[in-house]
Amino acid sequence: MKIYKSAKGIGVYIILGVSILYNSLLIFLIHYVDSYEISILLKFTLIAINLYQLYYIIVCGTLKYFIDTENLYITSILKLKNEKISFDNIQMYQKSKGRIKGVKVSGYGKNKFAIGKSFIHKIGNTQMFVTSTENVIYLKTDTTSYALSPENFYEFEMELNRRNIFYSEWENKLSKIVNPSRKQKFFIPFVITAIIIILITLEPIILYLHGNLPDKMPLSFRPNFTTVEFGTGRQFAFKQMSYGLLNMGVLFCMYYAGHIYSRYDEKYSYKFLYAALIVSIIFLVMQIKIIYTFR
């Protein structure tokens, strides 16, 4: 088995720099924001971003390519990336140098490095495992393309030639925008999120109209869940309704973002709706906690 290290680039340093920037900003906001709801959202955001950044730091810093008699393996430490490509499925390859020409669909990086999925000009949907753009090789298979940046580039290319895989140009055009909303993976999270938003919006109003809210309800909290301001049950109900409308706006933004991204990758378009779902769940849990604490 032959091992090819991924060429060293600036990807890890860029991700570290962005991580420091995000952490500094979010920690500053968490420290100075005097709102329970916003503080909770910022803390969830901080955790999610750090997990996301750590994942790509590990992948970008430890990426390797292995070749045996039948397959090409793309792996990183802890198997965070673990792709297996049969040489029988590789039809041809292309090469490039310099800036990556394409649209990032998911993952990290764009011009100087790229880990994730991109739609590359003429090449089409591509799984990106590129830590340096000095020498990039694109492998075309039956289902998708793969982009690699091996350290010993020309030796890697000769290895492909020995397996009757040769350089050839191909072109995949961008497909028309499809409507993913009919697919269950898209429709189900949309419906669940919509139901949660309806609960956030209507539950406090229904409780108020039926006289099940106290005359005095909290309107704002400090991050430690101590009340800053009290108001009437009616004011509380309308404030919670505004949170429901906010979540509705997030849902429709994510819906249209997913609709647009389906042109590049239909599978990835579903993930936008899950972001809206997570946000709505956080708001619902906070609302339930407030109502059952102060009723």
TrEMBL record:
It comes from the Bacteria. InterPro entries: Bacterial_PH-related. The keyword Acetylation does not apply. The chain crosses the membrane at residues 12-32, 38-58, 186-209, 241-260, 272-292. The keyword Ubl conjugation does not apply. It holds the Pfam family bPH_5. Residues 64-163 form the Bacterial Pleckstrin homology domain. Keywords: Membrane, Transmembrane, Transmembrane helix. This is Bacterial Pleckstrin homology domain-containing protein.
